[in-house]
């Protein structure tokens, strides 16, 4: 499932050569263990597509090298060898930068969450503030877990805005306008001094579903993040999909109201102008002395407030209709809803499903599973850590 | 670019083994030659990602086996070895089944069109009639080219309807309702007695653009077929994309008019109900003694008929708007328009581009190339032949 690292250099590492073959097979095994944690040799063979003999040979060499650990276990009642990476204390960092928060997770090579925490940030904060807050969190969590800063493999960061792969910069229209156009990769490298990997937050939410969530075997999945912005992350044929310039899943900018409100992207009547939490807050704050918060919306809807229920139903229908277009186009197996409204459960899922089934080609709508994310607000940071596990230089290969 | 054949059986062909490696490398070289025709060894190395040493070794073995032919040439002023498959008379058949036609092409292993022809069929014809017409065409073209029926590698067929990969059947809502639910693969196998590969016609149009058209190096391409139905074929990361059940690119069924006409898919106000050639024919036939044909529409629009120009402009805008959603989601590098209206050129392209730019996220719309297909009505049949070149059992491996 994971994408191979982008660069393979040197003649002996050309894809057709013997040494490249052995290296690729070893990497497959390590990536599988990073992604899934503990596996038997038989499971490793299945996941990597390698023969059990090849797996067994490579595992033996890696045990000798101290790179992995094995222990006897049973599988379907038979004796088996359970394999896990010797984490050697190596740690991957995942950071989720939001409009009003930053969340951090530390994960180990053997696919365990070591520590996690987050802080709130003021609306409209500059990129520097977000980066500094993340750096403080990472330092504190390292101390808490007793890990060593030298053990950091790399840092993955999720950004709530599309990233143009031609320039590596957040493009105009991002939910964090203060972050547009800055050299984020450079700033993060400077602040942390370790390898940095960045991606759009919805893409990372999708990646988290197939690496930490219950969908490890799903090859085509859409993660829809519904918050003050609306964006989707796509897993197609088992890997995150980036298209031509890296800007994919922008369903928040489907036109749904011809003469609707002007959107931050420059167009008019986009889905975001009718179904984002910002729009819900606007609608439900009228006539109140204090504006409602996203948490308030969830609370009063669960209490049965008719205005909140109506606003959520309308938003859900609009989102479902946009998802129908997504299904008609890329026909995913599963759609997972994430963002700040997951606590609404059926109150939100039901109108989304109604909109989806009403507007999708019947055979497609009926065969698509729709579910609420079970990773709550950790999805993006976990996906960011997966970026590191999938793309960072592998230790001592 | 081509997908690997689906089945690899036997322990010695597990992806990690030596013999599997050599087999895969040989296949890469053959597939590259099938797809591109004649290549130098250096170009082969670039296209397959193999080292020049590996390419040279395999080419040598294949020359000894009589499978390929080499000849001296020059490349950038230097001496080089040009490699081509020894076609040995092997032929791939591509068939495009339409609502009122069937087109057939015969192509050789070394990527040349040997013969092509088509016949018109009555609207509402049964699958049997279409298959029999195709069989007659194939027999005649074989005689014309002096090829032997024993030399047929396989037959690819394009169907104007979505194919459910779970059952292999055309699903409800296809443009050929008479073909829904029949076991097409079985019928074609019976009629031709050679390996059969089928796909949706829009998918094959997309495949033709990257195998026979000018877009051989484009990794993300959308082919939009605009005719009595509207459907898209997707090339994502260099290969046709099929999603979960095989039904992708169904943008003709995006809802664009809430209280619009009932669509053959069972929904209401789909793009097809406002922008298909059937709708154009309905609109432009009112008040005429004879209904206009698609060819008439092209002709009178080129003559400047105001009603035709208005109908095409409205349809183009609606198609462009739907394509904006496609761009926002999968961010292709190129969109190619095909179907029965390609003769309209700028008259159709211009409103499509206007709709696309108006509704796409600006960075995405501006970076997407939009062009008319240069393969005219051969695209689908050529794509069907490519299916065979990519998926048929390779000769004497």
From TrEMBL, chains A, B:
GO MF term set = DNA binding; kinase activity
The family database entries (SUPFAM superfamilies) matched by this protein are listed as: Actin-like ATPase domain, Winged helix' DNA-binding domain
CDD domains from the UniProt entry: ASKHA_ATPase_ROK_BsXylR-like (cd24076)
UniProt KW keywords: Kinase, Transferase
UniProt lists compositionally biased (Polar residues) regions at 8-20
**Residues in the signal sequence:** none
Region of interest (Disordered), residue spans = 1-23
**In this protein, which residues make up the domain named HTH cro/C1-type?**
30-58
UniProt lists the family membership as follows: Belongs to the ROK (NagC/XylR) family.
What name goes with this protein? Sugar kinase of the NBD/HSP70 family, may contain an N-terminal HTH domain
Origin species: Crystallibacter crystallopoietes
